[in-house]
């Protein structure tokens, strides 16, 4: 059976039936990806030890690590993907989801410490993005993309040191990494982030609510209008909540969202994805310039 | 007093030569779009607007025919609103009618392609619902479905997905025409935009909708057509 939302990691996913029921085995046979998958497993194990009310984490039963391959054996969750969930969800279920997202991120914030993230973390990352874009065969001759990267570099150079909570984050908190099981939401595919801040989780979830990124990976027909209405409602609720509560969110959300999309752009190779990303990045740059962010 | 709006302003290529189904007559000589409202408590409505397209009116002399129908059924408060351009959604047709006629207060929108009876329509947000099991033959993919909780509050409405045994029977009540227009203007860039999308967006904003219970539902087999 083909998954409705395709991932990018290249990992193999197998559903295994043993005496204890179903398990998910996530494996990589790419030696370069082994350490990443192991980090993911460790992050997931740590996260599963904490209670987050409706937000849950599948239990990891075993991590098998070899030189050239690795496998995480974890709990199978009977669930729906976000499109299926949103297509059927009543308004009160959307309200629960909004509450759960706020609660989860607030817990992450409380478990983190306010720290100064030196300016060079962002500028070094930007320089790395610029190098990768130059090497990307689909982008290196794309004048528009190169100009967007140049403009972004100017923005990143102006951000300076950032004071924000650092300590805990999922690392890739998009809708495609949430399994929807009734009013329980299971987080999967934890990742190391270049800044381990809950702000990066807000950036990632708004990658979907504000920009509907994960729907680009969904290949079955769905009610786009309904999904757009729901996404916009979740987005405004999250944005209003964190805008009211945290100065660091107001200060650094936009440059970090810009960086988030630049990091997607650096590996992009599909024409429709590149076009979408250029459009989004261009809009973000205009917004930042117009609001003196 | 409420205002009743019957939107019939969609255009289709084959309407160049063919009379749109809602303007045809039944065996008793009543136009289907007029028959569509006859099961409603018409005394509850101050005005009734049938919203049609100028192109159709010119081609088929609809306003004259509708005026004859109004006289026949003694609908002294019924009017024809003519739109110069086709609309892209039923919600746009209704919004144009509200603007052109300066309609205020509660509106009830009735689809032209079906009939039902309702004893009472309260001037509050609501959706006419009917249970699937009451129909001898069901065409599930051309309906929208409505979930209600135990206390009869609407919790969900969705196009073409069977999330409930209640389907939307083609009658929608909006307590305030101005609020309806605000939501239409917020969502007008989405396509295809259905009234169910507007109701769902209002539900997400904590606006309350009640189901309107109806009887004797009849679909005239004009499925696949959105008359806007």
Number of helices of chain A: 9
The secondary-structure class of chain A comes to alpha+beta
Number of helices of chain B: 6
Helix content of chain A: 40-55%
Largest sheet of chain A: 4 strands, antiparallel
CATH superfamily (homologous) name of the largest domain in chain A:
Aminoglycoside phosphotransferase (APH), C-terminal lobe
Tertiary shape of chain A: globular
CATH topology of chain B: Spore Coat Polysaccharide Biosynthesis Protein SpsA, Chain A
Largest interface: A-B, 15 and 21 residues
Distance between the termini of chain B: 24 Å
- The CATH class label of the largest domain in chain A is Alpha Beta
Mean pLDDT metric of chain B: 93
Q: Judging from the principal axes of the Cα atoms, what is the shape of chain B?
A: globular
Strand content of chain B: 25-35%
Percent range of helical residues of chain B:
10-25%
The CATH top-level class label of chain B: Alpha Beta
Spatial arrangement of strands, main beta sheet of chain B: 3-2-1-4-9-6-10
The counted number of beta strands of chain A is 9
Number of domains of chain A: 2
What does this 3D model show about the protein?
The complex is a heterodimer of chains A (293) and B (228). With 293 residues, chain A is α+β, with helices and mostly antiparallel strands. Chain A contains nine helices and nine strands. The mean pLDDT of chain A is 93. With 228 residues, chain B is of the alpha/beta class. Chain B has helices spanning 32-35, 54-60, 62-72, 90-101, 177-187, 195-204; strands spanning 2-8, 45-53, 78-83, 107-110, 114-117, 126-131, 144-148, 154-159, 166-174, 210-213, 215-219. Chain B has a seven-stranded mixed beta sheet with strand order 3-2-1-4-9-6-10, sandwiched between helices. In chain B, strands 5-11 form a two-stranded antiparallel sheet. In chain B, strands 7-8 form a two-stranded antiparallel ribbon. In chain B, α4 crosses α5 (177-187). Mean pLDDT of chain B is 93; it is low at 222-226.
């Amino acid at each position: 059976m083909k998954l409705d939302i395709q991932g990018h990691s290249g990992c193999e996913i197998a559903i295994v039936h043993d005496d204890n029921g179903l398990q998910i085995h996530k494996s990589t046979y790419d030696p370069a990806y082994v350490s990443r998958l192991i980090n993911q497993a460790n992050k997931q194990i740590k996260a599963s030890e904490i209670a987050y009310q409706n937000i849950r984490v599948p239990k990891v039963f075993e991590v098998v690590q070899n030189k050239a391959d690795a496998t995480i054996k974890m709990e199978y969750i009977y669930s729906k993907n976000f499109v299926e969930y949103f297509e059927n969800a009543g308004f009160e279920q959307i309200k629960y989801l909004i509450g759960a997202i706020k609660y989860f991120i607030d817990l992450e914030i409380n478990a983190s410490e306010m720290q100064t993230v030196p300016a060079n973390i962002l500028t070094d990352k930007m320089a790395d993005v610029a190098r990768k874009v130059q090497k990307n065969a689909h982008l290196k001759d794309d004048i528009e993309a190169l100009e967007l990267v140049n403009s972004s570099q100017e923005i990143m150079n102006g951000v300076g040191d950032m004071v924000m909570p650092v300590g805990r984050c999922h690392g890739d908190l998009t809708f495609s990494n949430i399994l929807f099981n009734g009013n329980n939401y299971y987080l999967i595919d934890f990742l190391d982030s270049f800044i381990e801040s809950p702000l990066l989780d807000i950036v990632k979830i708004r990658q979907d609510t504000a920009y509907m990124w994960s729907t680009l990976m969904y290949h079955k027909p769905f009610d786009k209008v309904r999904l757009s209405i729901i996404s916009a409602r979740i987005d405004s609720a999250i944005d209003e909540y964190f805008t009211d509560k945290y100065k660091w969110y107001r200060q650094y959300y936009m440059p970090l969202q810009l960086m988030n999309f630049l990091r997607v752009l650096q590996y992009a190779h599909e024409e429709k994805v590149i076009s979408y990303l250029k459009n989004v990045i261009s809009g973000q740059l205009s917004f930042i310039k117009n609001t003196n962010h | 007093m409420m205002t009743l709006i019957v939107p019939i302003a969609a255009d289709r290529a084959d309407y160049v030569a063919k009379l749109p189904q809602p303007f045809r007559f039944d065996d008793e000589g009543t136009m289907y779009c007029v028959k569509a409202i006859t099961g409603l408590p018409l005394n509850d409505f101050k005005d009734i607007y049938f919203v049609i397209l100028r192109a159709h009116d010119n081609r088929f002399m609809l306003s004259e025919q509708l005026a004859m129908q109004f006289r026949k059924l003694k609908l002294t408060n019924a009017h024809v609103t003519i739109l110069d351009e086709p609309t892209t959604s039923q919600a746009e047709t209704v919004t144009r009618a509200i603007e052109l006629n300066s309609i205020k207060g509660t509106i009830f929108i009735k689809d032209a392609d079906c009939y039902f009876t309702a004893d009472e329509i309260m001037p509050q947000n609501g959706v006419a619902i009917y249970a699937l099991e009451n129909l001898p033959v069901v065409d599930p993919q051309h309906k929208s479905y409505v979930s209600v909780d135990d206390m009869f509050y609407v919790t969900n409405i969705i196009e073409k997905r069977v999330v409930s045994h209640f389907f939307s029977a083609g009658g929608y009540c909006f307590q305030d025409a101005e609020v309806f227009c605000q939501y239409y203007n917020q969502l007008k860039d989405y396509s295809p935009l259905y009234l169910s999308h507007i109701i769902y967006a209002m539900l997400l904003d904590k606006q309350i909708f009640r189901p309107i219970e109806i009887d004797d539902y009849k679909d005239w087999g004009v499925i696949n057509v959105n008359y806007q």
